[in-house]
Amino acid sequence: MKKGIKENKVQRMRNLATGNYNKGVHIRSGYTTKHIERAEGDIWEEGGKTWTIKRGIKRTINKLDSVRKINRVPLQCPECSTSMSHPAHKQMFKRFGMCFNCVSSWQNEMRANGTYEQFLKEFDQRNFDAFITNVKKEYDDWLGSRDSESFISEAGHIEEWSGGQSNQDIDKEFNEKLDKVIADKKEKNG
User: What pLDDT does residue 120 have?
Assistant: First the structure.
């Protein structure tokens, strides 16, 4: 029994290595389809999907490609070329754009300069502002969906609800509590 790699697969790899990405390796007879030559980097729609060719391989393009690109961690730190294989390096890269060693050195320099406490205050304030923005957005989404008088229970039954507080009363109470939280934060930071 002779096992090996089929000739058409070997020919496909030769085509990829030489740059003939679109050259076929199968000989067919009978029904033929209209063949459109695609080149590296072409973008087209086919079968309800968007396609492109990257490095000789046909790939789909979807809405999460940009998110994947943002979340991608490089193999080496852009600052010092340290390997980014350790989880600590990956977490620091996602947060600060460099490896754990570079972040430690950077923070030590700030401590030596006396700017570290100011950096922490600004970092904490940006984090708090982002939290408040998210809370407001979630609240607005919830308040907008509250206008519906029918709800679906866990059992799948549609229930009609009415009454309770008005949206104006709830909005007033929410804004008062949010203002209190912001004032407490400002008082704490002095």
Answer: 92
